[in-house]
Write a structure and sequence with these properties.
about 300 residues, alpha/beta, 6-stranded mixed β-sheet, 4-stranded antiparallel β-sheet, 12 strands, about 20% strand
């Protein structure tokens, strides 16, 4: 890493919040599990808990002793260098990978033995680092795919196009349009998803995940490829989603201004292990975090 890159990276970690308008920080409360949760979630069962979670690939330990207990309306971030294991944790939480050890509880229920679809129906939805939309389908049809979790259909009703079929079709159209309204995308409903600009595809993927009616929304680099204005708008919309849908949001992101500006609790991952956890202010002043990003030569 060049000296210029080192200085830029250090500045991103240390002053990430300065690039964003100040947002009012919630009061955080220490739990018995050593996790911080927003005061508004105190006394409520954590919506997502992972205890001593780990996975090995052959002789390589990719994630080791990962623990989290998320408040029901918490916005948390997971940061770390490339290859630290962040996306692997998302794959574990959604059962794309089966953990070598540890337990995952969603609303108090163990997700062990569930497949990806079952975990999604239990209440965990996600987006991906590499966008995975149905490119040839319309924007609205992509959202309707997400709404499939809550659709109740009957073969006779659908085959014979009975009145109930048309009522349901109108209902789900309205719900899809309401979701598209979160990002002001109603006018794009009939556009092919593959024709959308990159930033709009990112937003559509979030809406499709939200359409599955999750309790926990996992966002993998949601601000990637967005300009500063789009990123700032996304921050406001993520907070609106949290408030309107009363869900927890866990995100992975490399944009430090985005992370510091929106997350209430941040965990820092390095070589598959959490090396620091705390408020944005605590994280940006933690020497271990600077070292993980820059190496020892970058730490004064």
């Amino acid at each position: 890493m060049s000296n210029d890159e080192t200085r830029e990276s250090k500045a991103a970690v240390e002053t990430g919040e300065a690039a964003c308008p100040k947002r009012r920080r919630p009061v955080l409360v220490q739990m018995e599990t050593s996790n911080l949760v927003p005061e508004r979630d105190l006394g409520k069962m954590p919506v997502l808990q992972a205890e001593h979670l780990g996975i090995d690939f052959g002789g390589l330990t990719a994630v080791d002793d990962f623990n989290i207990a998320m408040g029901r309306t918490e916005i948390s971030g997971l940061i770390g260098p490339n290859g630290a294991g962040k996306t692997t944790i998302f794959n574990l939480l959604t059962n794309v990978y089966r953990p070598t050890r540890g337990t995952i509880l969603l609303d108090g229920y163990d997700t062990a033995g569930k497949n990806v679809v079952e975990v999604n129906k239990m209440g965990i939805a996600r987006t991906f680092q590499n966008i995975r939309l149905f490119d040839k389908m319309t924007v609205e049809e992509n959202v309707l795919v997400g709404l499939g979790n809550s659709m109740s259909t009957h073969l006779v009703t659908d085959v014979f196009r009975l009145p109930k079929h048309w009522r349901q079709e109108a209902e789900y159209h309205d719900r899809a349009m309401d979701l598209l309204g979160i990002f002001n995308m109603q006018g794009l409903a009939r556009e092919r998803a593959g024709n959308l600009p990159y930033g709009a595809q990112r937003r559509l993927e979030i809406l499709r995940a939200l359409a599955t009616n999750p309790k926990v929304l996992l966002l993998d680099e949601p601000a990637a490829g967005m300009n500063p204005a789009e990123t700032e708008e996304l921050m406001g919309n993520i907070e609106k989603i949290r408030d309107d849908f009363r869900i927890a949001i866990l995100l992975i992101e490399h944009d430090m201004s985005f992370v510091m500006g929106i997350c209430e609790v941040i965990g820092v991952l390095d070589y598959g292990r959490i090396i620091a956890k705390g408020t944005p202010e605590e994280i940006q002043n933690d020497p271990k975090v600077i070292e993980a990003y820059l190496g020892k030569q970058g730490v004064k």
